[in-house]
Amino acid sequence: DAGITQSPRHKVTETGTPVTLRCHQTENHRYMYWYRQDPGHGLRLIHYSYGVKDTDKGEVSDGYSVSRSKTEDFLLTLESATSSQTSVYFCATYADRSSYEQYFGPGTRLTVT
Amino acid sequence: GNSVTQMEGPVTLSEEAFLTINCTYTATGYPSLFWYVQYPGEGLQLLLKATKADDKGSNKGFEATYRKETTSFHLEKGSVQVSDSAVYFCALAHSNYQLIWGAGTKLIIKP
Predict the structure, then answer these.
(1) Chain B residue at shortest CA distance from A1
(2) pLDDT tens digits along B68-77
(3) Are the Cβ atoms of B89 and A42 closer than 8 angstroms?
(4) Count of CB atoms situated within 10 Å of the CB of A62
(5) pLDDT of the residue at A39
């Protein structure tokens, strides 16, 4: 267990409101990722971070921003939530450059009404 | 570019049946290959992996062999249990510390 927590675990919000999801890890892993999981699409990478204040876009980054001011925290922000962003969001960390193994948090279920 | 293709689900089997979930990949070089499992309501967790051709990964009775000649990494288990019901994801390691994911295969085991 890599000690990854996500908050909140469930959230319902209205279209147009800002939303921030938090990922917290206790393992001092350098790399962190945000994915979304939708039926028929598997996992899609939103953004990732390769160090404090170092982030990059994934394949579905439009409408999302991230920040990483500390090694242990990686925040995902939806500036103005839309119904298409209703999804389950997973945070993951990457521990070992030689193994590529990723560890996942429990997920956040976000519903945008 | 790199990609992973998995068989579509759901796959429905009876308890004690033999399981195969197909996974094929397209990649340059020889990337590491993975199977992850997601139980209901949980995040993904690594099930097994293989880092080079002909390697066999195994865990919890599941096995997969890295076949370079057929670019495949099929997941197998000889006798499935109800507790194996989950979504299974095949993935390959990308050069910039990312994983390329298959779409996932839902497995349903009936008692």
Answers:
(1) B45
(2) 999 999 999 9
(3) yes
(4) 8
(5) 83
